[in-house]
Amino acid sequence: MKIGLAVVCALATLGASGRSEQQQWIGTWGTAAQPVRPATVQTFRNQTLRLIVHTSAGGKKVRVRVSNTYGDRPLQISGAHIARRTSGAEIDPASDRTLTFRGRPSTTIAPRSIAVSDAADLDVPPLSDLAISLFFPGETAATTTHSLALQTNYVSAETGDVTADAKFPVAKTISSWPFLAGVDVEASSRGATIVAFGSSTTDGDGSTRDANRRWPDILAERLHNSGQHAELGVLNEGIIGNRLLYDSPTSPANPFGPSLGQAGLTRFERDVLAQPGVKYVFLALGVNDILFPGFPFTPPNETVTANDIIAGYRRLIARAHGKRIRIIATTIPPFEGATFKAAGLDLTFYTPERDRVRQTVNDWILHSGAFEAVVDFDETVRDPSRPTQLLPRYAASDHLHVNDAGNVAQANTIPLSLFQSHQ
């Protein structure tokens, strides 16, 4: 008996139960959009960007999210491609795919908006590098970016659309991700997205550039290597200098302008709740709320108490639960000996009063029962002989952030059994 092609295709999607296997989108890579300080904005004209990202979960279909969140004018993209990266700025030409937007190879993204490409058929391996190439024909100011990419990205000369070139003509390199917000892959109903929502300690400050050694990267490796969690994607939505309760300080003396991002309470909708397939979020914000008061550019009325931070946590817990997302807290590691030397500033962070706030917040995180789970990063990376500072072998040079070894230790603290509930 002959079976028609349509019937064969339908049968191929049936699971053991006889029901059709449900497909869904999950995030395999993501980054949080940041506004740019006007004095540092990059401008592109008749140029192509080749942006490199490292995947977590794999899939057979892919789409890309491009952000004009902080733009005040339409963003014109006249060509977009995605491919598997081989090395440097070079791609495997057999993997090159044109990205379209509503069937067209170009798009214009309205101010304060995000565009999602159409699905492209591409075998995306887990824990691999992709190259997303975007061509900007007219003068384009990168008012939306992610500043701490810790990834070398590539810019062409003003020579037109080279989005499909296997050997990319590099005119210069950059270490940010202009406009790019996320990459999604298609997964089965067993798939889900995990969002790491935090500040620079999540963003990867202190880890090695071009090495993907942030703790969310290490978590993605562990999930993939476990076998049973291969369809869980991990998105890093950390922003350097970000706070839970307040936006980037607005004082004219702030050398970073708005680039430290909107408050976690504000961006939670965009960076967590709006992510495809999200089922889990790690909450790792609060340290900068404690440390910033006393900075010369922070208004005095932005001093916070432990109760202020706890109240902010409660608001995010309620919003996550409203979307049936499990929220997992991480404790705040110590910061005695931490320094800040940049933008003409030379500051120390530690005071006994600030550390008491940190410990009060950590005690509430550990014992309140408000979260589905708690991961005690503080215990993992602190020095047992002096618990107010990082263990020397885990401390980056500023003694505020952890190094690669510290990121591995933190990620290894996370029990993979936390991620059974959605299946």
Name the CATH class of the largest domain. Alpha Beta
Q: How many separate domains make up the residues?
A: 2
In whole angstroms, the N-to-C terminal distance is: 38 Å
Helical residue percent band: 10-25%
Average pLDDT taken over every residue: 93
Describe this structure in words.
- Strands 4, 7, 8, 9, 13, 16 and 17 form a seven-stranded antiparallel sheet that branches.
- This protein folds into two domains: 148 residues; 230 residues, 3-Layer(aba) Sandwich (Rossmann fold).
- It contains nine helices and 27 strands.
- It is of the alpha+beta class.
- The radius of gyration is 22 Å and the shape is globular.
List keywords for this structure.
31% strand; Rossmann fold; 7-stranded antiparallel sheet; disordered N terminus; 423 residues; 5-stranded antiparallel sheet; globular; alpha+beta
